[in-house]
Design brief:
Blueprint lengths: L1 E6 L4 H10 L5 E7 L8 H4 L11 E3 L1 H4 L6 E4 L6 H10 L3 E4 L9 H8 L6 H4 L3 E2 L2 H10 L2 E3 L3 H15 L9 E6 L14 H4 L4 E2 L8 H12 L6 E6 L6 E8 L6 H12 L5 E3 L17 E8 L4 E8 L3 H16 L15
Parallel strand pairs: 1-2, 1-4, 2-3, 4-5, 5-7, 6-7, 8-10, 12-13
Antiparallel strand pairs: 8-11, 9-10, 11-14, 13-14
Length: about 350
């Protein structure tokens, strides 16, 4: 039985972690932190989980950083996890970080993207990028996993097999992504306010969203050479979900059969990546509340364009579900433990 602490537990990703871990037979939630809600009674801070969290320590991060637990999930704002992770790992606690603090192979890139000096560059070199479909064996052996961003998860899963197998030209790749408003977090922001979002759609984060370098990093590693893609996110009036439509050009001599072979090779046996049959295209509705990534593709023979569609729930496969999947690998549990819920429909 692993004792779990969730730092930043009252954000959307924190709530998702609780929801999934309460169904995990190998876990006991021991501590939950919140800077904003720590003065509230536990049942008021976590109303969806009334009656399920008795005996759990609750308070601010500083108070609980030294509490007794085996694994810490850091659902903290970017730049804060790098301070918390060091002391935790130093006393033998395994860490699954959901922020961006340990995702980048290059500290200068991280610092340029987030505009801060990294607080623990030495520890960052030990982190494993938390995409089990790519780094499963490394995740099993690490004490620090860095869960990918939600947009990078959808785009990398959609494009990496093609880049790795040389099926596409690595120049001119475009990822056009639509996301629900929960990706902006639980704190009120005007641009994510319901009257501002409903009945509209808008692009944001142009020309270089902070998730762009993360995509470039992983696609470059897959291809064995530098890759820089164009990424355009759009905010749409729904709560959950990301739909990534990715455009690339077939490499010389490659065909639609090579594209299919690349996907089949990459995801054979993967239980959370579902390759859709011909005739079906993915919808965010089909993965809502689940840890699935659904992928479909088409090849336009006339233009030699490959169009790959990848959908995830941004709060699950794009964040907390991936974190639990990584935790299972790190701790020797079946990879699907706590993640067996099917999508919510309608």
């Amino acid at each position: 039985m692993k004792r779990i602490a969730i730092f930043g537990a009252t954000g959307y990703t924190g709530f998702e972690l609780i929801r999934m871990l309460l169904s995990h037979p190998g876990v006991r939630i021991s501590a939950l932190t919140s800077e904003q809600y720590s003065e509230l009674p536990l049942a008021e801070a976590f109303p969806p989980f009334k009656g399920r969290l008795e005996g759990v320590s609750f308070g601010k991060m500083e108070k609980l950083l030294g509490a007794d637990f085996d694994v810490a999930f850091l659902a903290l704002p970017h730049t804060l996890s790098s301070s918390a992770a060091g002391p935790l790992i130093g006393r033998g606690v395994a860490v699954v970080d959901l922020s961006a603090d340990f995702r980048f192979r290059s500290i200068p890139v991280y610092e340029s993207v987030y505009g801060v000096a990294h607080k623990n560059a030495a520890l960052a070199s030990e982190a494993v990028y938390g995409l089990p479909e790519v780094y499963r064996e490394k995740i099993r052996k690490t004490r620090l996993t860095a869960v990918p961003g939600c947009f990078p998860t959808s785009v990398i899963l959609g494009l990496r097999p093609l880049a790795a197998e040389g099926a596409i030209d690595l120049g001119g790749i475009v990822a056009d992504c639509k996301t629900g408003v929960s990706g902006g977090g639980r704190g009120p922001k005007l641009g994510f306010h319901f009257p501002e979002v409903d009945e509209g759609i808008r692009a944001y984060g142009l020309p270089r969203h902070r998730h762009n370098p993360e995509m470039d990093q992983e696609l470059s590693l897959a291809a064995g050479r530098d890759v820089a893609i164009t990424f355009v996110p759009h905010l749409v009036p729904m709560v959950r979900g990301i739909h990534a439509t990715c455009y690339a050009t077939l490499a010389p001599g490659k065909t639609a059969a090579d594209v299919e072979a690349a996907y089949r090779k990459a995801y054979a046996g993967e239980q959370f990546v579902r390759l859709l049959p011909p005739g079906l295209l993915p919808s965010t509705k089909d993965v809502r509340g689940s840890n699935f990534c659904d992928i479909a593709w088409r090849v336009d023979e006339k233009t030699r364009r490959v169009i790959a569609c990848s959908v995830i729930d941004n709060l699950v496969k794009g964040a907390s579900g991936a974190a639990v999947q990584c935790f299972n690998l790190m701790c020797g549990f079946p990879e699907e433990e706590g993640l067996r819920n099917m999508p919510l429909f309608p």
